[in-house]
Amino acid sequence: IFCETEGDYSALVRVIGRVFSNAEALMKSFRKDESNATGNLESSQVTCGDNQKKQTTDKMGASSAATLPDEGACEMSNLCNVTVDICAVRRVYDRLLAIDQVEAALVNALIYLSPNVELDLEYLDAYETNPDYLNVFIIVMENSNLHSPEYLELALPQFCKAMSKLPVTALARLAKLWSTYSLPHIRRVMETFQQLITFTIVSNQYDDENLVNDDDTVVTATQCLKVVFYASIQGGEVDTENNTEDEEILHGRNSDDLTLHELLGEEQLYRKAPPVEILAKELGVRPIDSIKPLIPFEEFINESLNEVLEMDKDFTYFKVDSDIKFSFQSCPFILSIFTKSQGLYYDNRIQMYSERRLRALYSLVQGHEPEPYLNLKVRRDHIIDDALVRLEMIMENPSDLKKQLVVEFEGEQGVDEGGLSKEFFQLVLEEIFNPDIGMFTYSDETKLYWFNSSSLENEAQYTLVGLVLGLAIYNNCILDVHFPMIVYRKLMGKRGTYLDLSDSHPVLHQSLRELLEYTGNVEEDMSLTFQISHTDLFGSPVFYDLKEQAEQIPVTTENRQEFVNLYADYILNRSVERQFTAFKKGFLMVTSESPLKHLFRPEEVELLICGSRKLDFEALEKATEYDGGYSKDTRIIKDFWETVHSFGEEQKRLFLQFTTGTDRAPVGGLGKIKMVIAKNGSDTDRLPTSHTCFNTLLLPEYSSKEKLRERLLKAITFAKGFGML
What we know:
It is an enzyme of class 2 (transferase). The active site is at residue 693. This protein has 725 residues and is of the alpha/beta class. It folds into three domains: 2-238, no CATH class; 372-610, Hect, E3 ligase catalytic domain fold (Alpha-Beta Complex), CATH 3.90.1750.10; 612-718, Hect, E3 ligase catalytic fold (2-Layer Sandwich), CATH 3.30.2410.10. Helices cover 52% and strands 7% of the residues. The strands form five sheets. A four-stranded mixed sheet has the order 9-10-12-11, covered by helices on one side. Strands 1-2 form a two-stranded antiparallel ribbon. Strands 3-4 form a two-stranded parallel sheet. Strand 5 (440-443) and strand 6 form a beta hairpin. Helix 14 runs antiparallel to helix 15 (216-235). The protein is globular, with a radius of gyration of 30 Å.
C-alpha cells in the first residue's frame, strides 16, 4: 500500500529480489497457518490425488477461470503434505504481476535462483534433507506469466533444468498436488512447458549433427511436462484395479541360458522390454489406467518437436544408450502416433535383421540351408487349414515370427513384395469372420465383431487371428477388422468393465445404466436375481450364476452395483476367457518383445491395426502415381480427381475400399498410401478394376467425364471389398 501511495516500488523490488532469488527464503515463505491446516485436514474426507473441484470452473475458459482461487488445491495441499498456502501465493502473484517493475525483478530472481537450486539438488541432497524444498517449485510454478518471452529465453530453461534434478518421490508429490488443481490451472502449467519446448525449437536449427535430443532445454522441459501428464491422469477418472498380467503363455528360455546376442555383447540392442517408468511406478498409475484424463492426451503432443525429431537416432538412444542419452520415446505422450509408429517400424526391422542374422549363423554351424524369412506356402481354397499347419510348426520355434513374412500361393507365380502378404491377411480374415464359421458374432447396430462364447472352434483358430493382428503390425500392414475398443484394452493388460459395454454391447449397457439410475424399488419392480441368461450358438437359453446360490439372491438397491459389475465381468471376460486367451496368445507371440505396450495407448493400437477414419483425399491425390501413359495432366486424370472430390463421405469410403481394400487411412493419413492409377485400354463400357493388394486402380480412358463418373460409381457400389492396405 505504501509503494502504491508513493508510486515508488523500489523497496518492494528489493524485497522480491531477495526472497525469490534465495531458495531458503522462498521455501519458508507463504507457509500455512499450522492450526488452520490441521483443522482443514480433519474436516476433509478426501485423500491426496482425488479431484474434488467445483464444477463451475470446468465450464469457464482457461483464461478467465485460471485467475480465480482454486479452492480444491488450497484444501488438497494439506493432504499432499505440502506446507505452502497456495491461495496466498496466488493472491500475491495477482497483485505483483500487475506491476511492471516487479515483473522484471521476478525474472532476474529466477535466473539467479535456478542454478543454485540445481546445485543444491544434485550435490547437497537438498530435498532428502528437507522435503519442504519442494515449496520452491510449487511457488515458482504459480507464476502465471512464465510462458511470456521474458521467461522463455533464459529464466524458465534454467528452472526446468533444476526441476529435472528432483528425485522421483518429489516429482510424485508435485504430480499429486497438481492433480488436485482445477482444469484451467493445470492446463496453464502444461501450456507453460509446451510453449517453452516450441519456443526453443523454432528458435534453433536441428540436423544430424545438432540433434534436438542434445538440447537441454527441450529435454528438461519434456521431463517436467511428464509430471503434468501424470497429474492429468491421476486427477481424472482412473481404473487401477482391473488389470491382468500377461499370461504365462509364451514359454521363454531358461534365464540361465545365454543367447547369441549376449555372447556377442549385443544384448542391449536386442533387449526385450523398455525400462520401467519410475514416476508411474511411484504414483501407482499408468496411462492405460486412465479412463478420462483432466487434459486430453492429444494436447500433450508437441508438433514442433515431432517435425525435427530424427527418429532413427532417437530409437538408437531408446534401445542402446538410454542411460547416457535422452530418448523422447521415454516420454511417448509428447509424440504423435505417426512418429511413434516410425519407432515401432525401426524396432521391427531390427528384430527382422537380428533373426535373419541368427538363422544364418546357426545354419552355418549346423550345416543347414539358411531360412532367413518366414515362408508361408498356402492354397487359396484351404488357406485356414494350411495356415494352422504352419502355426503348429511355428509354435515349436516362435522366434520364426520375427522373420520377415513371405507368402507364396501354391500353383501361382509371383514374388512377395508385400502384395501377397497383404492378400494372405485379407483371405484369412475374410474366412475367419465368415458368420457361417461362428467364431465371432456381428452386431448390425455397432457394426462390430465380438467373440462368440458358444463357438465350437478350437483355440488354435483364435490364436491364428491374434497372430494375424500381430503380424500385421510387425509387417506394417493395415487390416479391415472391426473390434470394439475393449479388445485392444484387454490386449494391453486391462479387464473389461461396465463402462466398456457402451462400445461393445450398447443395449446391455443402457439396460444396466437404467438399473443403476432407477429410483423406485429395484427388488419389487424388476424381480431380478444374480442368475442371468443368454442364448447360445443354437439359440438355446444358457443360465449362468454370478454368485453362489444366485437364483435365491435378489437384486436390490444396495447390491445393484455389484450385480452390474459381475454382469459386465461375465460378458467381457469370463464368458469368452477361452477364446480371448488363445487370441491374446497369438498376438503376444509377435508383439511381446516390442515396445508396443510402452509407446501406444489402446486407441492408438487400433489405429495401427485398422487405420483412421479421417480421410484427406487432397493428400491422396498428391501422393498418387501414374502408369501406362497416364500423368497428372492427362484429361481423364483431371476428370477423375474432380469426380472423386465431388463424392460424398460414404462414396469416398466405398472408393477407398474398392481401391485399397479398406475404407480407412493408415497412420499418417492417406498421403502415406502409394496409390497407382494405370491405363487399362481406351474408351469402353467395361468397369474400372483394382488390385487392392498393390493399391492399383486400372482405369480405362473413358470418352467423357459423365461416363467416367457413372462407370466408377457402379464399380465401387457393387464391388464387395474386404481387405487391407
